[in-house]
Amino acid sequence: MTEPASAETASVRNPSARLIDGKAFAANLTQTIAQEVRAFHDRHQVTPGLAVVLVGNDPASEVYVRNKALQTHRAGMRSFMHMLPETTSQAELLALIGRLNHDPEIHGILVQLPLPAGLDPVAITNAIHPDKDVDGLGEVNAGRLALGQPGIVPCTPLGCLMLLKSELGGLRGLHAVIIGASNLVGRPMARLLLAEGCTVTVAHIDTRDTAALARQGDILVVATGCHGLVRGDWIKPGAAVIDVGITRISLPNGKTRLVGDVAFDEAVTRAGRITPVPGGVGPMTIACLLNNTLAAARRIVGGAA
Ligand code: NAD
């Protein structure tokens, strides 16, 4: 009698995972947000405004904040850029945040991280009014998420969750393994997936045998900054793999390329679904920032769309 095909055999017969197109999902989401921004303006005569603060001249951060400003305009919102010199003091930055907190034209405030040495990112993040903390990184919003209360959710894990729900539908009962435990991605991701009814395992730099844990994940979210960390045989056949990592590597021809934390060519033969890098999680992060800014404007202005 022939043995029934195991999931592993099936995955080998069908070696190519479905690509999760974060770019297309984010473009649709941004279009929907733009329509809602117009409706919000018609109703309240208010245009949602996002202030982005960049201290210093880190080239990667400059690209990120310019891209955020461009997308904010595309969604029909107002963008207020504050480019401050490297020499900005903590008191000067806190004073700016204080003014933005009270500015009625501003509904969302984002301070681009990392900050130059000498500035305390925890104090700066916590100085943003919780209603305008569209990155969701302050202690009030982080605490609300930890307690399962409504609040502003960090953009990257929110984008990952949207992709997973659109791909898999309900997540209840699935085992989600998250590699990476940062406040920016891993921890809020764990809380979101727990709230969806997943069983959640979080691995980090001190975890013993991360590969063995990863192999148990129906969902595998990877956010470590170690490019190519997750090999093909770390992946449970058929799993949904979300690669948050972004690292720019140099190629022998002198050019550079963005890569993720997952060895994509190997993973694609085992996973059921996988996000590419670039074009997966990255575009969702900005779309979710716009989503959070519109939601903040709705709450601040006091009501419906
Ligand atoms: P971080 O450095 O703050 O945290 C990394 C986490 O990974 C830590 O918890 C650490 O313990 C864990 N880790 C590191 N090496 C590990 C290993 N070998 N095995 C297991 N765990 C390990 O990083 P972060 O801010 O969370 O960012 C992680 C990655 O995600 C980076 O590449 C970053 O650029 C990327 N990122 C992308 C987006 C996006 O929009 N796509 C947004 C945020 C971060």
In brief, what are we looking at here?
The chain has helices at residues 7-13, 22-44, 59-74, 90-102, 121-127, 139-146, 155-168, 186-195, 210-214, 264-267, 281-301, and strands spanning 18-19, 49-55, 78-84, 108-111, 175-179, 199-203, 219-222, 240-243, 247-250, 256-259, 273-274. The protein is α/β, with parallel strands linked by helices. The strands form 3 sheets. The chain has a 6-stranded parallel beta sheet. Strands 3-2-4 form a 3-stranded parallel beta sheet, sandwiched between helices. Strands 9-10 form a two-stranded antiparallel sheet.
Structure description:
- NADP(+) binds at residues 180-182, 205, 246.
- Residues 20-135 form the Tetrahydrofolate dehydrogenase/cyclohydrolase catalytic domain.
- GO terms for molecular function: methenyltetrahydrofolate cyclohydrolase activity; methylenetetrahydrofolate dehydrogenase (NADP+) activity.
- With 305 residues, this protein is of the alpha/beta class.
- It has two domains: 46-131, Rossmann fold (3-Layer(aba) Sandwich), CATH 3.40.50.10860; 154-282, NAD(P)-binding Rossmann-like Domain (Rossmann fold).
- It is 42% helix and 16% strand.
- It contains eleven helices and eleven strands.
- The strands form three sheets. A six-stranded parallel β-sheet has the order 1-11-8-7-5-6. A three-stranded parallel β-sheet has the order 3-2-4, with helices on both faces.
- Helix 2 (22-44) packs parallel to helix 11, helix 3 (59-74) packs across helix 11 and helix 7 crosses helix 11.
- The longest helix has 23 residues, at 22-44.
- The termini are far apart.
- Residues 1-14 have low confidence and may be disordered.
- It binds nicotinamide-adenine-dinucleotide.
- Nicotinamide-adenine-dinucleotide binds at residues 156, 179-182, 184-186, 203-205, 207, 210, 223-226, 229, 244-247, 281-282, 285.
